[in-house]
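Hi team,

As requested, here is the filled-out complex form for the zinc ion run. I kept the field names the same as last time so the parser does not choke. Let me know if anything looks off before we queue the next batch.

— J.
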Amino acid sequence: MKNRALKRLIYSLSVLVVLLSYFPGTSYGSIKTDTILNNGGFKIKTIIVDPGHGGKPTGTGHFSHGASGSFSQERNVTLAIALKLQKAIEKDMPGVNAVLTRTTEDDVSFERRAEIANENKGNIFVSIHCNSLSDRRVREQVGTKHHKAVYRTVTVPDRSGRGVLLLIYGLHRSKEEEKTIVHNQVEEDSGMDAGLDPDDPITVILTNEYKRKFRQQSIKLATLINNEFTETDGRQSEGLREQGIYVLCHTAMPSVLVETGYINNPKDEEYLNSEDGQNEIVSSIVRALLNYKSAVENVSQ
Ligand SMILES: [Zn+2]
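And here is what came back:
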């Protein structure tokens, strides 16, 4: 009982910090407006790099094979880009550790990827994918019968997709994300190990605050990456979109999925498989990460 009362006190203090942060214009001594995420000089220490898909499934859970181009597979392209991105982060972002969710050709389940991200206490999650358009169904005339045209339906590849697309988690999946936030972030920051009641109003307030921040920060990071692709590399872009994606909903950190190009478009496929293309993609993501890092770290100054 005593322990419970103490936990309640620690918890209430956390809530007070959140509530105070709603009044940024007022001075509360050393309490800063972004205290909830910038506890005493928040620093980005770990970036999770997630190469989408894979070959042979390992372990249990949900897997997805990925798209194919005319001479390459999405799963190989994403691994090549992710390995380069890991190296570039460790070279150009001193003090930042880059953790891969998959290092071999074998596939890792969505569940395990999210676990790796949370276990390693990632501050940012970047998932690397390639886009692809499904085949189109078209009707074509094959002849005539009794003076009437005869048609058949055929599927033809649609290679018209081009350029990048940035995805952040969709709001319709936010219940699942809330559970992860309660489990990882809120319990840790409030000094409580386990057993938070997700329906407790205090938990709801804290979780909503984290959710708001993570969504805001995901949009901020996605915008920075998109701008680098379009302004520096001159790539075509479909912009930012919200979508319910398992790994993005289960990571308690700002998360962005980068569709680096259309693997079933001949020009994009060539670019995605070239050393120059992969290096350009990696450099753009690293520049965006550096800008994002200085922006969020400066909030706590
Ligand atoms: Zn994919």
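Two things worth flagging: Strands lie at 46-51, 57-58, 97-100, 107-108, 124-131, 136-145, 148-156, 164-169, 237-243, 255-262. Residues 52-53, 66, 74, 129 surround zinc ion (CB under 6 Å).

Thanks,
J.
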